[in-house]
């Protein structure tokens, strides 16, 4: 027997670690599953569980397996499984037709794991950057219920929706992002090249400059004198914020703040609720118990604040309360959605109505994303207008004063 270290999630979705003596990794996974722990990683103590060996340079040059690759892989596996092709032969065929080295390495590792007697879900846990906990959990449910083909189809639809939402948000934010970058570039140019020239010219006036001019020139002088310190503070601040967001409390607070932002917040909330409803419907249709489905779905919403609310729903369901009452206690659903959940629970058609809820939120998200650029443009125009006004007043007020003084002396 050998000692294996493992990481897994318990029934509440909490990450736990440990070590176990067993014959092989499959035996460790069986022990964990029997104890109610979903394995995420199992490997020999002191060894790393990696894909087929690659040199360090080759690993750096190889592109990572992207979400688009996972989408295509899910669709291909669905087609092959629907046609009755055995899973090992399907993976071998996909490996032979794939040119991406990282994807080939992953497929080789999956085939090797299956050859050793592991289940596909256990093999996928060795690649957490490609297959998230929700994907692995759904594959495990498909293996247990004999509906693996259907699960591949649903996961392909799920990933496609996620990619579509991300693409539309990026498209809507492209123009505002370019405008903001142009504003920042203009501020740097003005501070480094324009204002110093005017500062030398204003020094010969021998008069007191307006407050706006003195403020702007002081800011420019401070930026030129202390730019190394400002750059260091900016880098340190960025690293500090990233470190804080990596903590559990930091991510929770930031995820809660995102939902309350003036323009983007409602879009993030609707997209998150659409993801929740779609994932919940998918897990419920596949035969997953409600409490376990809520645990799995909490990992897919990609929002710590929402995950806590879904965890509260799960705790209420485990106490014997109805889903509609638990959902109402979270305070995140609209009355219309609450009514649909209650009707679905009473009629036994919760899966169907959850899909309707997901479709409704997706339509609202799509409409909100289309208007995102139009909602941000007035704010950007106000910012640009304020910058131009401040710059114009700071530079031209002294010139106007000097011109008025010269005209007065000429008339005298």
Keywords:
412 residues; mainly alpha; Ubiquitin-like (UB roll); Receptor-associated Protein; three-stranded antiparallel β-sheet; 6% strand
Sketch the topology as an H/E string, one letter per element.
EEHEHHHHHHHHHHHHHHHHH
- Specify the CATH homologous superfamily of the domain at 264-370: Type II secretion system (T2SS), domain F
| CATH class bucket of the domain at 264-370 | Mainly Alpha
Going by helix content, strand content and strand pairing, the class is: mainly alpha
Shape: elongated
- The fold-level CATH name of the domain at 264-370 is Receptor-associated Protein
Taking pLDDT < 50 over at least 5 consecutive residues as the criterion, the unreliable ranges are: 47-60
Structure summary, number of beta strands: 3
Q: Which CATH-level-2 architecture of the domain at 264-370?
A: Up-down Bundle
β content, as a range? 5-15%
Overall helicity: over 70%
Mean pLDDT: 80
Q: What strand order characterises the main sheet?
A: 2-1-3
Report the C-alpha radius of gyration, rounded. Answer: 29 Å
Give a quick account of the main beta sheet: strands, pairing sense, barrel closure.
3 strands, antiparallel
Annotation field: number of helices: 18
Distance between the termini: 107 Å
